[in-house]
Amino acid sequence: MDVSYEATKREISTDQGVIRYHEAGEQHDDVLLLLHGSGPGVNGWRNYRGNLEFFARTHHTYIVEFPGFGVSDPVEGHPVLTAGASVIRFMDALSMPSAAMVGNSMGGVVGINLAIKHPERVEKLVTIGGVGPNLFSSSPSEGIRLLQEFTDAPDRDKLLRWLNSMVYDPSVVTDELIEERWAAANDPAAQQTAAMMYGSKAFAMMQQFMATSDTPPYWAMMHKVTCPTLLTWGRDDRVSPPDMSLAPMRLIPNAELHIFPRCGHWVMIEAKDAFEATVGAFLQR
User: Fold this and answer.
1) Which residue, 3, 38, 116, 220, shows the most beta carbons closer than 10 Å to its own?
2) What are the pLDDT digits (tens) for 68-88?
């Protein structure tokens, strides 16, 4: 199976621009969507390129590129909301009634929101960190504070500090990874998205909105998630500390939690083999 970048890249037009994606495992009937996280230089391919071949052995697997991260066409609106809407547009464009979903960090929040608002579209859900409120740990966390510092005034040293906060093992942060993320983080669309999500001004506005709004946060509605859900977490996650997992584990009726030792925020990368075995068994169950 050829799961290289060129062999798997695709694109499809929607009424709000082109959505780009990667596709493998076309011979399978079971469908799996891989939803990426956020942060400097992120996209779906960089999050999941190491996992695509594994999941394509059993599922017709798609890596979806969200608008505003320098790959798919950008759209107006907050990135988390536009990401969820883009998943529905993507599924409709491919006549895909429902799918299992794996979401990393922000992608997990996108998946949770879809499972709340469009339960018929989400068959199973796997989240990788990032879901739920900080119960005991400080908010913003160390990793989010470093992300804010980079977003407000980007430079390579700040990028390196943030990347190191994402992992347990610093050897994961290679020179190649630093160069790749630095180049991608300079994309104007990606910078605009980052400012909307993680700039200190945007964060302050969001805190004020949450303090005064009558709209409950998404995590207060997690009891509405009806699909089987697997929460995965790195025990040493400094971006989304593991105490965040307690609320979704309790509130989602059919949720289970797996915590990986010696692992940071990028569970699918840093604990690749154990993550794939765990998720693969959950999806096949």
Assistant:
1) 38
2) 888 999 999 888 889 999 999
